[in-house]
């Protein structure tokens, strides 16, 4: 049976987050609020937990989940060959609604799906998500919805779609943006926007002048 907690209740928040960390360590799933939409989360280094996340959404391994991190410095442990572009983007837009796809560290012992040697990484601008990530380390997190349906902006919407596949639902109130993060792919020869979101192409080109848009 799924459990649900109001993570905004200050008197119980630490206990709730500690329990969430225990659930993650056990290989089970959470739904958490982020700065964009609600996300379904699993231990990024537990292949069976990531597989359960994809199954809960009705997705295949061809759509691997992004990884959320508690601090920008974590990118050095996940991304191979962090360069000035990555550092400039994270300095400007993290924490915030920017996901960066880059080459993954080849030594990482994980299986996020068919990533083709890349990782999509983001630091969310949400105090509850960051407090959880500080306890768990990197989490594989995808929008909390069934594949093909809109991303959940409330814990109720997430629970209606994902049901008992998730052990704990963290309710942090409505996510008012309702918009998933902007995704920039830096893994190829030409940096490219692969999903539009809250951060515009114009803002990104202040850092990456040769950035191609979806239509470019």
TrEMBL record:
<dbReference type="GO" id="GO:0000049">
    <property type="term" value="F:tRNA binding"/>
</dbReference>
<keyword id="KW-0067">ATP-binding</keyword>
<keyword id="KW-0819">tRNA processing</keyword>
<dbReference type="GO" id="GO:0005524">
    <property type="term" value="F:ATP binding"/>
</dbReference>
<keyword id="KW-0547">Nucleotide-binding</keyword>
<dbReference type="GO" id="GO:0061710">
    <property type="term" value="F:L-threonylcarbamoyladenylate synthase"/>
</dbReference>
<dbReference type="InterPro" id="IPR017945">
    <property type="entry name" value="DHBP_synth_RibB-like_a/b_dom"/>
</dbReference>
<dbReference type="GO" id="GO:0008033">
    <property type="term" value="P:tRNA processing"/>
</dbReference>
<dbReference type="InterPro" id="IPR050156">
    <property type="entry name" value="TC-AMP_synthase_SUA5"/>
</dbReference>
<feature type="domain" description="YrdC-like">
    <location>
        <begin position="14"/>
        <end position="199"/>
    </location>
</feature>
<keyword id="KW-0808">Transferase</keyword>
<dbReference type="GO" id="GO:0006450">
    <property type="term" value="P:regulation of translational fidelity"/>
</dbReference>
<keyword id="KW-0548">Nucleotidyltransferase</keyword>
<protein>
    <recommendedName>
        <fullName>L-threonylcarbamoyladenylate synthase</fullName>
        <ecNumber>2.7.7.87</ecNumber>
    </recommendedName>
</protein>
<dbReference type="GO" id="GO:0005737">
    <property type="term" value="C:cytoplasm"/>
</dbReference>
<dbReference type="Pfam" id="PF01300">
    <property type="entry name" value="Sua5_yciO_yrdC"/>
</dbReference>
<comment type="similarity">
    <text>Belongs to the SUA5 family.</text>
</comment>
<dbReference type="GO" id="GO:0003725">
    <property type="term" value="F:double-stranded RNA binding"/>
</dbReference>
<dbReference type="InterPro" id="IPR006070">
    <property type="entry name" value="Sua5-like_dom"/>
</dbReference>
<keyword id="KW-0963">Cytoplasm</keyword>
